[in-house]
């Protein structure tokens, strides 16, 4: 039976703005308060989805969230009609309104952790929505994320869904941004790689001093238990606290893996040699041959990696066994990174080609190609059980492009977030989107 890695890309929401909400994310903070372009952001993301589909990769789409989140503002004491809630929040607590309008759900690498059926005890694909409790504006996402994922992967014979972990610091979970999977083939048993920034209960693990470590060891272990993963099928590794303090807020900003390949920076992890040895041993036991590709700090600094998002790229397997690296335009703009990539693809190694995409709107808010996609490994039967409305096709691309053109603004500032009309525009757009994607009622305004 054939198997695939399907990339489900997040569709950028109508309230895409540069609120500077993510402490520890250099791009998010440095572009705070600039004017954004939601229409351009959504179209850039759709163009990437279409391009990968045209290259023969399986591609899907994951819907954005309702914003502003009026219900979240009500829980914080703002009362009255929806318009009054928004206007009062704008007057009394603008940072809370900005947080309630964040379009950060576009980065669906943080939406959930996914384990394919070949790895799990019950032979189903398991999803655990990430609690994202390190940042308030992201912590309000997981209820809608769970409903959307449930509507996309609804067949209980093939798919299992778990609620987000307890929303406390000890179980901080940032989803697939700190998780990858190694395997010989997507339909075969693999080794799941969980990267954490700190331990909540074990002081032997060091923590960063400047920026928060968002993923805990305890959260990663809990997800592995929920998914029914075997001890032999899991490796845990700690992210280097020093690189977290340089702006590497998730592992996918400093490393990316796929198939049997780990593409990583020399400074990405603690105790790297032990981790590589464990990965190599466990991957060999499932029939694979581990291929680490280390980028030396002498060629690319951590600062270069953060500014270019070299590692927040998509590493994709091609039919001939070689790999394609999808990078943002910013990589071409960094001389050291671009020189390294030219040498990498010319070396005869496993990564043979680099393709560049313009994702400036997402990049300026702190997310690159890998942030925008959630990877789900599926066999043919499981793929057939996925809601067909969310699988990218040429007609769906055209429908979504036209939908964006109808509903999105081409300019968004902080002052625009205080306009109650924006909520009506967002709800009208999302109501139509659920019909296009055949999701049913997944948003609070459709349910309540």
Which helices and strands appear, and what pairs or packs with what?
Blueprint: E1 3-10, H1 26-30, H2 38-54, E2 59-62, H3 70-75, H4 82-92, H5 94-100, E3 112-115, E4 125-129, H6 136-139, H7 142-152, E5 159-162, E6 179-182, E7 191-196, H8 217-226, E8 234-238, H9 241-244, E9 255-258, E10 261-265, H10 272-285, E11 291-295, H11 302-308, E12 314-317, E13 323-328, H12 329-332, H13 335-345, E14 351-357, H14 360-363, E15 373-379, H15 380-385, H16 394-407, H17 420-436, H18 444-447
Parallel strand pairs: 1-2, 4-5, 7-8, 10-11, 13-14
Antiparallel strand pairs: 1-15, 3-4, 6-7, 9-10, 12-13
Helix pairs in contact: 2-16, 4-5, 16-17
Question: What does the model show?
Answer:
The chain is α/β, with parallel strands linked by helices. The protein has a single domain (3-447), classed as Succinylarginine dihydrolase (L-arginine/glycine Amidinotransferase, Chain A). It has helices at residues 26-30, 38-54, 70-75, 82-92, 94-100, 136-139, 142-152, 217-226, 241-244, 272-285, 302-308, 329-332, 335-345, 360-363, 380-385, 394-407, 420-436, 444-447; strands at residues 3-10, 59-62, 112-115, 125-129, 159-162, 179-182, 191-196, 234-238, 255-258, 261-265, 291-295, 314-317, 323-328, 351-357, 373-379. A three-stranded mixed beta sheet has the order 2-1-15, sandwiched between helices. The protein has a three-stranded mixed beta sheet with strand order 3-4-5, covered by helices on one side. Strands 6-7-8 form a three-stranded mixed beta sheet, sandwiched between helices. Strand 9 and strand 10 (261-265) form a beta hairpin.
């Amino acid at each position: 039976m054939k198997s695939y890695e399907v990339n489900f890309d997040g569709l950028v929401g109508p309230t895409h703005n540069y609120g500077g909400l993510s402490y520890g994310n250099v791009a998010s903070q440095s572009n705070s308060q600039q004017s954004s372009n939601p229409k351009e952001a959504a179209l850039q993301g759709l163009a990437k989805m279409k391009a990968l589909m045209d290259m023969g990769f399986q591609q899907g789409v994951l819907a954005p969230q309702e914003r502003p989140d009026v219900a979240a503002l009500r829980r914080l004491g703002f009362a009255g009609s929806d318009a009054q809630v928004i206007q009062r929040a704008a007057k009394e607590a603008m940072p809370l309104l900005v947080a309630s309008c964040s379009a950060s759900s576009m980065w669906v690498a943080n939406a959930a952790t996914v384990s394919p059926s070949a790895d799990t005890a019950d032979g189903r694909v398991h999803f655990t929505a990430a609690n994202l409790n390190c940042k308030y504006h992201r912590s309000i996402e997981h209820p809608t994320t769970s409903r959307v994922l449930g509507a996309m992967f609804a067949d209980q014979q093939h798919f299992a869904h778990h609620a987000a972990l307890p929303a406390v610091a000890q179980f901080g979970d940032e989803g697939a941004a700190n998780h990858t999977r190694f395997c010989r083939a997507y339909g075969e048993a693999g080794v799941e790689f969980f990267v954490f920034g700190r331990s909540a209960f074990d002081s032997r693990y060091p923590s960063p001093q400047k920026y928060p470590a968002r993923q805990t060891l305890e959260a990663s272990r809990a997800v592995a238990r929920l998914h029914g993963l075997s001890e032999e099928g899991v490796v845990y590794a700690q992210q280097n606290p020093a690189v977290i303090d340089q702006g590497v807020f998730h592992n996918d900003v400093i490393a990316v893996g796929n198939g049997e390949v780990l593409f990583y920076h020399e400074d990405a992890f603690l105790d790297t040699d032990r981790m590589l040895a464990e990965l190599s041993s466990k991957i060999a036991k499932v029939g694979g041959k581990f291929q680490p590709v280390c980028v030396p700090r002498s060629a690319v600094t951590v600062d270069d990696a953060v500014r270019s998002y070299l590692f927040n790229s998509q590493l994709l397997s091609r039919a001939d066994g070689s790999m394609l690296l999808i990078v943002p335009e910013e990589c071409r703009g960094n001389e050291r990174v671009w020189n390294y990539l030219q040498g990498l693809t010319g070396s005869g190694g496993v990564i043979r080609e680099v393709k560049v995409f313009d994702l400036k709107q997402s990049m300026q808010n702190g997310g690159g190609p890998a942030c925008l996609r959630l990877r789900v490994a599926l066999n043919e039967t499981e793929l057939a059980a996925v809601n067909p409305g969310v699988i990218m096709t040429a007609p769906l691309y055209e429908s979504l492009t036209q939908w964006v053109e109808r509903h999105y603004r081409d300019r968004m500032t902080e002052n625009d977030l205080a306009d109650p009309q924006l909520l009506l525009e967002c709800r009208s757009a999302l109501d139509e989107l659920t019909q296009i994607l055949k999701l049913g009622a997944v948003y609070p305004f459709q349910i309540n």
